[in-house]
Here is the input.
Amino acid sequence: MQNLQLTSDGRLRHLITLAGLPRAVIERVLDRAEAMRRDSRDGARPLDLLAGRTLINLFFEPSTRTRTSFDLAAQRLGALVINFDIERSSTVKGESLLDTIHTLEAMHCDAFVVRHKESGTPETIARHLRSHACVLNAGDGSHAHPTQGLLDALTLRRRVGDFSRLSVVVCGDIRHSRVARSDVDVLRTLGVRDLRLCAPPELLPAPGTAEFAQCTLFHNFDDAVAGCDAAIMLRLQKERMEAAAIPSEADYFARYGLTAARLARAKPGCLVMHPGPINRNVEIADDVADGAQSLILEQVANGVFARMAVLAELLGGSAA
Ligand code: NCD
Here is the structure.
């Protein structure tokens, strides 16, 4: 995968997964996102780093945050954005994915942002491209969601200095979550040593699952959250579950919902995160989701800067 994602001189070529991506590459993206955030706050002129470039959003699964923020990020850097309308495209006439991609490539575009329910689709596209275009994974099945991992790392990094002393719990539907995988990848690479995963047994991967090696697995959320600096809550992804695996929402909330009482077991000021969309009072209580420790909307805001930084790395040359 590294050969696919990185050029021979170590620059990003595609962004498919954060697994195995060198720490220096990740930190460079985060530093760049931070600079973009600063410029935007200071009212600096929008950048024209991507002027003349074309980005195509290809979302085969629904999205609010990721799609809109890729669109905004690209436009704020001066690119032209096409939000490809899959429902009205020849996909519904049976045109294959790769024929669709080659057709769009023939119109000369520079980047494909791809979300798909099948794990591995962005990688397949990247391997079959016939042009210079790059592929950005916007979430594939339960495999990876690299820009979510980056924006979560950016959000945490703005609040805490030393990642090596952090205790972070990721709680929810770990088994089906591409966010959990990308968050674990990036937090590990940045030095978080105490990473805890908590879920009901049926939503936790089997112990020894390679992606979650070195994480501590919990079934009891009261134990898992104790002494944590940050809690990353995940949505119950019913669309990816077999009917039998769906717990009752009330029972799930009683055992795994982040309530004020549970939050009080964590370190004072424990940061609360969720990639969205939230199922209120299933994964997280209203007062916690909207409370002073919640970074949920800050994650959304940072998503635009993280995606601007990734696009600048992939398409914009080296100047920040
Ligand atoms: C996530 C996704 O689609 O993977 N949402 C997002 O991109 N912010 C998480 C989810 O859908 O639960």
Q: What stands out?
A: The radius of gyration is 19 Å.
